[in-house]
Amino acid sequence: MIHVTAAESDAVRAIEAEAISSRFARGWHCLGPAGTFKDGKPHTVNAFGQKLVVFTGEDGKTNVLDGYCRHMGGDLSQGTVKGNEIACPFHDWRWGGDGRCKKIPYSRRVPLRARTAAWPTMEQDRLLFVWNDPEGSKPPADVTIPVIEGASRDDWTDWRWTETVVHTNCREVIDNVVDMAHFFYIHNSFPTYFKNVFEGHVATQIMKGKSRPDARREGGGEGPRMLGNSSVASYHGPSFMIDELTYHYEGFDLRSVLINSHYPIDQNSFSLHSGIIVQHSDELPPEAAEATAEKLSSFILAGFEQDIEIWRNKTRIDNPLLCEEDGPVYQLRRWYEQFYVDVADIRPEMTDRFEFEIDTTRPVESWQKEVEENLARREGASA
Amino acid sequence: MTARQDERLLDGPLLPVRCRRCAAEVLVRKASWEQTSIQWNAAARASCVSLGDDPSGTCPALRSAIQEAALTGALRVAG
Ligand code: FES
Ligand SMILES: [Fe+2]
């Protein structure tokens, strides 16, 4: 029963937003396709409020170190890879992937304290991951990124990868996990089923949708008709989402895996990545699959642009006002907070399983009407 | 960060429902017949036997227990 006093219902609702924490999430973060960093050159990556240097030694191992040399502060990412070490451009001190200074060519001895910050790295499915941990602990064995089956199989396409810098705090992209309605209003999708499950370090969104005839672009009429899609998308930790996304066409299904990942640059910006692979099939031989992956990739990028345009203009809000047809924003943020506190301070409710299924009856009714009105208007205009 | 509550819970709280197959007790809220929130705790999660293969599914036994609670009125359905 709703007991709202007159004073309460008349009061203007205030938007609240606390200062953004200066801490960056604990967890595996993907820096992009591993191949990018294997060109024998050092790469500058701005992440976790710092400048990092990423380089691959002759041994093939990719390393991530703090970008600034402990000697006199030189920028290691402007240096040179020599053997398995990164050589500083300023005085040629050589730093190993473990963060230790291995050699100073002009000195007999390396000082005792010559150690810099090194980030644990992992290569999987041809992607490079870096482990961030404000407490400095090693990545636990049970907090992994699952292997993506299609990423190493011949009957799937290669990764199509995109990167975009977004100028807002990365909580905005996480909120998308529970935001069913924005898929209709921003992304031209039509959700018909929507459920979330949060448990441990995994947050999942299960969504089914049908295609929007009113959103189909002019001239896009050839080829098989798309009926809808089913998607199971999970964040494994704070930043890496794997979306098993199946498009249903008249007569066949197209299977794809979509990656939506990011790493924070600082409190007010992040690097947003998308990756996609598509499975070959009888209906979709290798060449057609590559073309489809290309098309989907630009489609996803366009979707990011739609989000970015909203984020560019919206305000941060800690107390969103929700209707019953909205998803569990508060419970998602409660889950997300586990990555921003010390491991010892993780409370059970942050990781306990929580399920939330939206009643889509009313949204579907209302969106169906809107689609029909759009179509009627379009017909009226072209008649 | 201050922990904030989903204010929708003020309009209808989470209520306990017990699964009849495994005796797990979870907290449930239904804003309508088709909407369901299920809050597990560690003890309930450990006792559920049906969540194995599909981690994003809902335990079928628990689902029917919730349905029954809603039908008998033990679980109030808002809306
Ligand atoms: S500052 Fe790097 S070698 Fe001197
Ligand atoms: Fe979005």
Automatic annotation (TrEMBL), chain A:
Cofactors: Fe cation
One GO term (biological process): cholesterol metabolic process
Region described as Disordered: 208-227
Cell division keyword on record: no
InterPro entries (alphabetical): Cholesterol_7-desaturase, KshA-like_C, Rieske_2Fe-2S, Rieske_2Fe-2S_sf
Subunit text: Homotrimer. The two-component system 3-ketosteroid-9-alpha-monooxygenase is composed of an oxygenase component KshA and a reductase component KshB.
Name recorded for this polypeptide: Rieske-type oxygenase
From TrEMBL, chain B:
Protein name: Ferredoxin
